[in-house]
Amino acid sequence: KEKLEDSTPKQLSQSEDARTGLSVEALKKAIFNNLFYVQGKYPEIATRNDYYMSLAYAVRDRLLQRWVASVKQYLDGRHRIVSYLSAEYLLGPHLANNLINLGIYKEVEQATQELGINLQWLLDKEVEPGLGNGGLGRLAACYMDSLATLEVPAIGYGIRYQFGIFEQEIRNGWQVEDTDNWLRRGNPWEIARRELNYEVKLGGYVQHYIDRDGKFRSNWIPELTVKGVAYDTPILGYKVNTTNTLRLWKSEAPKSFDFQSFNSGNYNNAVNQKIVCENISKVLYPNDETVSGKILRLQQQYFFVSCSLQDMIGIHLRQGDKIEDFNVNFAIQLNDTHPAIAIAEMMRLLVDEYDLEWVDAWRVTTRTFAYTNHTLLPEALETWDLELFGSVLPRHLELIYEINRRFLDEVTIKVFGNNNKINSLSIIGEGPRKFIKMANLACAGSFAINGVAALHTDLLKSTVLKDWYALCPEKFSNKTNGVTPRRWLVLSNPKLTSLISSKIGESWIKHLEELKQLEAFADDPEFQLAWMGVKYEMKKILCNRILNKTGIKINPDSLFDVHVKRIHEYKRQHLNILHVIALYNRIKKNPDIEIVPRTFIYAGKAAPGYKMAKLIIKLINSVGEIVNNDPDVRDRLKVVFYPNYNVSNAQVIYPAADLSIQISTAGKEASGTGNMKLSMNGALTIGTLDGANVEIREVVGEENFFLFGLTAEEVAKKKKEGYNPYGYYLENEELKMAIDQIASGYFSHLDDTIFKDLVDNLLYHDPFMVLADFTSYVTCQEKAALAFQDKKSWAKMSILNTARMGKFSSDRSIREYCDDIWKVKSVSVHLDVKD
Ligand code: CGF
């Protein structure tokens, strides 16, 4: 209290305003004011959350000033706008990121300190919006950061899920899911724009008639109408004024209460519609690589897409432009096929509501959309049962039939009636039940199609989208993913950031290629020492977190082997654990064996309905229980499963990693982005030639990357020839022993049933060729362990990894999208814009 009284903000200088000023005094005053006027509290009774809110609102005020200026300048200047449609945004906490982008982290640190509050204590209070599953949602968040930083006019559209990705707990080694009630304490970063709302129809049927002018018309009579309300979050770029909008839609009932039903005594009916409508944006589907084919999911996709298109058309028409010129003002990027229904919706709006002729509507549509594919896994390619689709979107089904009919007419000529090709290109799939292929709809309706890493794009061209590539090669390009260095270095690794900046200045934060200048210090013993000193400090921080979260004590001097990502068979967390078991058995055989002490750190969520992935989590924890507590091991090996992997936890884990585990079966991981974040933080990669690993290895140099395993070509060949995992099991003694132990219950209190499905799957199917890559993995890990013992050379390799990561900034990716696909230009935003 005394401290607070001492530090009561002084008079501000004339040019400073408590709502916009960036000085320590102005910030103190703002926090103070908000505590009083927004939270309605005084210091003695204020809670930690009150202080967090007061600071968050102080920061938001500063964003609002820039946000209003950006919107005004975009509209006044009639600039082309990028619209990013994504069902997921995995944003992570806003506060620290906004402090960095505003350039006031230090000032706020001082302001809070002078108020007697610890900034970190407030930062840790923020509940992150987990509105995404993994890589795809996080990529959307990185791209929003880069769009703003590069001063590109852009809007991100998505869904304001009331419950985001579930929270993961580990109980008795198993994953247990809990709901993520992220809005429970309010969200200071969003502004509800209740006046911005659109109606969205669902279900029902379509009437056809000929109007007075003899024109054929369709009238969709819905079963239900839902209202979408806009919630806007400002996205500020790094040290620029540009503040773009992330507009997320919440579903509501057009009227919240049916009085007629209520009066006639039917209370349930009266509230029912409200519940049905609100359900649409209630919860994020927690599947990242499988499609569930559920009605609600289709409703979600259509709901946000329809609101977003109506919103864009509104913006366009308000500018006084003709609907036919929509594509001049907007470029729309489809983040995977989740929003691909936008193509049919655009046609519906243009033809049914704005009266355009079909050919004109199709011209506008196909000049507006571009599509990013994120996966080669067949189970992740979205299809909808035609009947189910028609029950939700009867008018769109008709439109898709028409799009397909016209499209196939053209195609038939081009492919000389080759039926296989026609079937593969058709938007409607034939079979016992017909289905709609969303990737084909996206390809037909877009002017550009891209993959997310060089290998992925090549594989798209030669496999999944082969016939599309033959048909329209000019649409295809590669846009290798990237990650924002603001969050993934500056924010999560401030010590490394200072060390880097002490040598090469700060402009690398916006121009990541400049990290290359660090190469000059890679051999400098003093710099190496400082570099590894930072790593050690970050490892100690992680040790504490792990101790708090799991009770496991780990050694910061050990090699941190870090495998963090969604749990999936193709990502092969089980290959990693087989390696752990092999090392454990070596120690058991010879307790005095010389072995590099290692900590295996895993983190990641499994889709709740994905049994095998959940079993893998249980296996990791079971092996951990034995290994961590066996006295023979003498703490030389530790296995940790860090629960509830999310953006905040990732920010603590990446800086502490020594070895980045990127061991997916070649040809399965489209790109990966964790691989980039880890390497940027100075971890060395052990990986297969998969996704963006290929390009990471190219830039960091093969001598600074531990490569193992089959190539994508070899995987395909082996599969074709008939892969026999059992042969590999018999061949390698260490592998056989590890699998036998799992099967016999060695790690599960002699219960030999728990892991039966997992073991059988590996021995008799092994779809992701874990056994085929085991020997190569173990040998490669031996090389990595040896390399880790040579501290100087490891430090050099680590520095070179960071130094050569310039390519993997999301700024580079966004620049490529802007130049090659969207054809948009930067607009610099000035704060002196007057009304
Ligand atoms: O998208 C992913 C990820 N699971 O979200 N795909 N999808 N869908 C890929 O599997 C990753 O390889 C990729 O990095 C990411 C973003 O493109």
Overview of this protein structure:
There is one protein chain. 48% of the residues lie in helices and 15% in strands. With 835 residues, the chain is an alpha/beta fold. The strands form 6 sheets. A 9-stranded mixed beta sheet has the order 7-10-11-4-1-12-13-17-18. Strands 21-20-19-22-23-24 form a 6-stranded parallel beta sheet, with helices on both faces. A 3-stranded antiparallel beta sheet has the order 14-16-15. α10 (295-318) crosses α12 (342-353). The mean pLDDT is 95. The structure holds C-(1-azido-alpha-D-glucopyranosyl) formamide. C-(1-azido-alpha-D-glucopyranosyl) formamide binds next to α7.
Write the layout of secondary structure elements.
Elements: H1 2-6, H2 24-37, H3 48-76, E1 81-85, E2 89-90, H4 95-102, H5 105-114, H6 119-123, E3 130-131, H7 135-149, E4 154-159, E5 167-171, E6 174-178, E7 191-202, E8 205-210, E9 216-221, E10 224-236, E11 243-252, H8 259-263, H9 267-279, H10 295-318, H11 326-329, E12 330-335, H12 342-353, H13 358-368, E13 369-372, E14 383-385, H14 386-392, H15 394-414, H16 419-425, E15 428-429, E16 435-437, H17 438-445, E17 448-451, H18 454-462, H19 466-471, E18 476-478, H20 485-491, H21 494-504, H22 525-550, E19 559-564, H23 573-589, E20 598-603, H24 611-629, E21 637-642, H25 647-653, E22 659-662, H26 674-680, E23 684-687, H27 693-700, E24 705-707, H28 712-721, H29 725-731, H30 733-744, H31 756-764, H32 770-789, H33 791-803, H34 810-822
Parallel strand pairs: 1-4, 1-12, 4-11, 12-13, 13-17, 17-18, 19-20, 19-22, 20-21, 22-23, 23-24
Antiparallel strand pairs: 2-3, 5-6, 7-10, 8-9, 10-11, 14-16, 15-16
Helix pairs in contact: 2-3, 2-5, 3-4, 4-20, 7-34, 10-12, 12-13, 12-15, 14-15, 22-33, 23-24, 23-30, 23-32, 29-30
C-(1-azido-alpha-D-glucopyranosyl) formamide binds at residues 134-136, 139, 288-289, 336, 374-375, 380, 452, 481, 669-673, 691.
Cofactor: pyridoxal 5'-phosphate
Region (Disordered): 1-17
Keywords: Carbohydrate metabolism, Glycogen metabolism, Glycosyltransferase, Pyridoxal phosphate, Transferase
